[in-house]
């Protein structure tokens, strides 16, 4: 494989570093890109260390497809790895990479799979056809007011039957995204007015007056199923579940735990093991149906009564892939690296193992270490990191683009994520104890432009560790 391919990494920071490490493990040369703001990032330093001065190319913008493809041609790349964010779930970019005059491999699912599963309405249709539970509500845009009222009434009735004390229905612009064009309705008296307002907003903003109507679910846990398949898409394999319920007020994940529940350590009001088995089975059924052909994550919400509902499919590697890998083994070998597996199968190799070959042991906790003021709305902190170090241990993995041997100015143009710490323990209490030990021994100091000390989310992470996986 090493004689045949060269991978261009169309990303930055921690994920770029990890893709380089994966390629290096496989003996595959790679090249990186960086912007002026990222010139001091560790991913640039690593690219040059592994591939020389010609292994890092400066570009104007990570979102400039033309710039990235021009570098790919100049470097002689045969494949592009998008990481996460940026172009990772852009099916048009994936199609362009594979169908241009000098075609390359897009290391991710096939573009049509990204397109089909990136459409949440289409994903819901596929799921319902297979008997996979989805959030109750419409599986297509609703344009007729009477039909909308009928669906809303049925959702209120359903919630009352479930014993929900304050039923709520979501009214959403079907063409919207990122929280735009969405409102909550608590009774039918307000529904018609809200429906009309969202419909008109959608028409003005997106030139499409279609509206989705869904049940609002409160107090849920956010679970994920990690899936991988090779290019034939016939026999997808899962690498377990994880729980991503510790989030910021803006619903950005801060701690992830694998597995998603831990009935051996915590008593739940429902059959937690059955829930995990069910969401894994349902996720694999969709993967098989669409011939999914790379790494992907099926995102679920689970109600306090233990009812799972599929939310969406993320057709890319995710930040938290490492916490799933840290509790897994293949044929007894614990050296599992899902980014390495993604690159390998993305370039055409067979997966080489089945579900029977995948085992699990222990509990993993992943901390997202971020420069942010959690006492002030999780606002990003801007400044210079002057000290960054941690105590090495065989039970901790650190992934970061922040240098340990020099000062580092955090670029204001990008998110303030600094590092990922992945902790392994024999059981939940063991992992939590190690997690607390790691966080307390972590050195992370800096100052802002006015000389004020650095703000981080470490106190928040310590506080939230106490109740991990409790529902």
Q: Could you please describe the fold and organization of this structure?
A:
This protein is α+β, with helices and mostly antiparallel strands. It has helices at 13-26, 42-51, 65-75, 91-99, 111-118, 120-129, 145-161, 188-206, 272-290, 321-325, 338-346, 428-441, 458-465; strands spanning 7-9, 30-34, 56-58, 79-81, 105-106, 169-173, 182-185, 211-215, 221-228, 237-247, 253-258, 295-302, 308-314, 328-330, 358-360, 363-370, 372-373, 379-380, 384-389, 396-400, 408-409, 417-425, 443-447. It is globular, with a radius of gyration of 23 Å.
List the SSEs and their pairings.
Blueprint: E1 7-9, H1 13-26, E2 30-34, H2 42-51, E3 56-58, H3 65-75, E4 79-81, H4 91-99, E5 105-106, H5 111-118, H6 120-129, H7 145-161, E6 169-173, E7 182-185, H8 188-206, E8 211-215, E9 221-228, E10 237-247, E11 253-258, H9 272-290, E12 295-302, E13 308-314, H10 321-325, E14 328-330, H11 338-346, E15 358-360, E16 363-370, E17 372-373, E18 379-380, E19 384-389, E20 396-400, E21 408-409, E22 417-425, H12 428-441, E23 443-447, H13 458-465
Parallel strand pairs: 1-2, 1-4, 2-3, 4-5
Antiparallel strand pairs: 6-7, 6-8, 9-10, 9-12, 10-11, 11-16, 12-13, 14-15, 16-22, 17-18, 19-21, 19-23, 20-22
Helix pairs in contact: 1-2, 1-11, 4-5, 7-8, 12-13
């Amino acid at each position: 494989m090493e004689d045949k391919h060269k991978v261009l990494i169309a990303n930055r920071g921690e994920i770029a570093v990890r893709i380089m490490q994966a390629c290096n493990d496989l003996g595959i040369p790679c090249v990186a890109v960086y912007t002026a703001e990222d010139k001091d990032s560790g991913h640039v330093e690593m690219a040059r260390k592994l591939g020389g001065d010609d292994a890092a190319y400066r570009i104007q913008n990570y979102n400039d497809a033309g710039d990235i493809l021009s570098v790919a041609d100049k470097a002689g790349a045969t494949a592009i790895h998008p990481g996460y964010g940026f172009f990772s779930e852009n099916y048009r970019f994936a199609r362009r990479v594979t169908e241009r005059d000098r075609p390359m491999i897009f290391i991710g699912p096939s573009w049509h799979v990204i397109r089909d599963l990136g459409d949440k309405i289409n994903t819901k249709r596929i799921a319902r056809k297979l008997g996979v539970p989805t959030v109750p509500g419409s599986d297509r845009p609703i344009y007729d007011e009477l039909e909308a009222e009928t669906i809303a009434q049925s959702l209120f009735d359903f919630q009352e039957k479930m014993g929900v004390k304050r039923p709520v229905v979501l009214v959403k612009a079907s063409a919207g995204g990122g929280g735009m064009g969405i409102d909550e309705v608590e009774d039918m008296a307000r529904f018609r007015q809200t429906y009309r307002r969202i419909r008109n907003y959608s028409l003005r903003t997106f030139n499409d007056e279609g509206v989705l109507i869904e049940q609002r679910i409160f107090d849920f846990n956010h679970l994920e199923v990690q899936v991988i398949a090779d290019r034939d898409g016939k026999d997808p394999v899962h690498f377990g579940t994880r729980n991503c319920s510790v989030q910021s007020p803006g619903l950005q994940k801060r701690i992830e735990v694998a597995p998603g529940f831990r009935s051996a350590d915590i008593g739940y009001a429902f059959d937690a093991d059955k829930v995990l088995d069910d969401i894994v089975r349902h996720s694999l059924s969709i993967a098989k149906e669409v011939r999914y052909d790379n790494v992907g994550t099926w995102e679920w919400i689970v109600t306090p009564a233990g009812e799972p509902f599929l939310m969406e499919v993320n057709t890319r590697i995710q930040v938290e892939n490492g916490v799933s890998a840290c509790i897994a083994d293949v044929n007894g070998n614990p050296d599992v690296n899902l980014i390495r597996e993604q690159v390998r199968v993305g370039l055409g190799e067979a997966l080489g193992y089945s579900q029977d070959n995948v085992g699990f042991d222990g509990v993993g906790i992943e901390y997202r270490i971020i420069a942010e003021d959690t006492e002030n709305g999780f606002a990003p902190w801007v400044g210079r990191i002057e000290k960054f170090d941690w105590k090495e241990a065989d039970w901790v993995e650190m992934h970061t683009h922040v240098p340990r041997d020099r000062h580092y100015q955090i670029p204001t143009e990008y998110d303030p994520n600094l590092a990922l710490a992945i902790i392994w323990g024999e059981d939940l209490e063991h992992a939590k104890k190690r997690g607390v030990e790691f966080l307390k021994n972590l050195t992370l100091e800096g100052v802002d432009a006015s000389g004020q000390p650095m703000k981080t989310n470490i106190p928040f992470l310590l506080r939230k560790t106490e109740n991990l996986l409790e529902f």
